[in-house]
Write a structure and sequence with these properties.
Elements (H helix, E strand, L loop, with lengths): L5 H8 L1 H10 L10 E7 L2 E5 L6 H9 L5 E4 L2 E10 L7 H25 L22
Antiparallel strand pairs: 1-2, 1-4, 3-4
Length: 138
C-alpha cells in the first residue's frame, strides 16, 4: 500500500502512474538481510528497519543508549533491542522486492511533491499532518 491517500487510487486507475512507478523503481533490488530494531513508543511496541524511520529519529536512537527514550522531529521512541532479519528461503528476495519498490516510489513522490509544489499560507489542507491544527475541519 502506498502511503498517501491518492497514490493507491492513482496507481490502480492510471496507466501513466504505473509507468512512472516502473521507471522510478527499475533500479530497485531486494534488500539484503538487514538489522531490525525493536522500538518502544507511546503508541506501542513494534519492529522496524532503521532505514524506514524518519532520519532524525533514527540518528537520535543510534546516539542514545539502549532503552533511553528520545524525541526527534516530533517522534518519540526507545530502542529496546536489535537483531538481523533472517532470510526465510530462496523466494525471500521476491517477497522483499515489492515493499522496497513501494518505499522507493513513495520517497520519490514525496521529494517530487516537495520540490514542485508551493503551499500558499492560509490555504493548507486542514488535515495535513504537518499543520499545527490538523483536525479535519472544513
Amino acid at each position: 500500500m502506498l502511503r498517501t491517500t491518492i497514490s493507491p487510487a492513482a496507481f490502480e486507475g492510471c496507466a501513466a502512474v504505473r509507468a512512472v512507478f516502473a521507471t522510478v523503481t527499475a533500479h530497485v533490488t531486494a534488500p539484503a538481510p538487514a538489522t531490525v530494531w525493536e522500538l518502544a513508543t507511546p503508541d506501542g511496541d513494534f519492529e522496524a528497519d532503521p532505514e524506514t524511520l524518519p532520519v532524525a529519529l533514527a540518528a537520535a536512537l543510534r546516539a542514545a543508549p539502549p532503552g533511553r527514550r528520545v524525541t526527534a522531529a516530533g517522534w518519540t521512541a526507545a530502542l529496546v533491542s536489535t537483531r538481523t532479519r533472517a532470510v526465510p528461503g530462496p523466494d525471500a528476495a521476491l517477497d522483499l522486492l515489492g515493499p522496497a519498490c513501494r518505499l522507493a516510489f513513495v520517497r520519490w513522490l514525496d521529494h517530487a511533491r516537495a520540490h514542485r509544489l508551493t503551499i500558499v499560507p492560509g490555504l493548507e489542507h486542514p488535515g495535513g499532518p504537518s499543520q499545527p491544527d490538523n483536525h479535519h475541519r472544513h
